[in-house]
Design a protein that fits this description.
Shape: globular
CATH class: Alpha Beta
Low-confidence stretches: none
CATH topology: Heat Shock Protein 90
Strand order of the largest sheet: 1-2-3-5-4
CATH architecture: 2-Layer Sandwich
Mean pLDDT: 87
Oligomer: single chain
Largest sheet: 5 strands, mixed
Distance between the termini: 17 Å
Length: 148
């Protein structure tokens, strides 16, 4: 799912001048869930990272296994999110201070929907500003018990 989302967003990233890359865990990380819904979540987070990143920046998608969970991080090197907006990220219809860098539209619905879908799968979603610049959005989903 992660590689599919990366491939699906490569042209968008190129048009925006954003370098897109993936650093995936060495082994297959499987989760229980609806593949379509989880793909929507990853695609939305990745699309947002590109949408709010300036030209000549980078977005990296990482996967890892941590404490019985599969975690997907979407890290950008954009302007970051101010503290006031950080508290509104996953609220339906909330409009944040940052504007898309390529004049794209933003409905304020995508992150709220992502939160609902991740929680329906027994997972968590969150975000934090990176220490240098940019933001990391992450999802953590319970690992499939038969994963290797």
């Amino acid at each position: 799912m992660v590689m599919h989302a990366v491939q699906a967003n490569e042209r968008y990233a190129q048009r925006k001048g954003v370098q897109l890359s993936a650093v995936l865990a060495d082994k297959s990380l499987l989760v229980h869930g609806d593949g379509f819904q989880l793909s929507q979540v990853i695609d939305n987070l990745l699309g947002n990272a590109i949408k709010f990143s300036p030209q000549n920046s980078a977005t990296i998608v990482r996967t890892q296994f941590t404490e019985g969970y599969v975690q997907v991080d979407v890290c950008d090197t954009g302007p970051g999110i101010n503290n006031e907006d950080m508290g509104k990220l996953f609220i339906h219809g909330a409009h944040l201070g940052n504007l898309p860098t390529g004049h794209e539209t933003s409905s304020g619905v995508g992150l709220a929907l992502c939160k609902q879908l991740v929680e329906l799968h027994g997972g968590e979603i969150g975000a934090h500003n990176n220490s240098d610049r940019g933001t990391t959005f992450w999802i953590r989903l319970p690992r499939h018990s038969h994963a290797r």
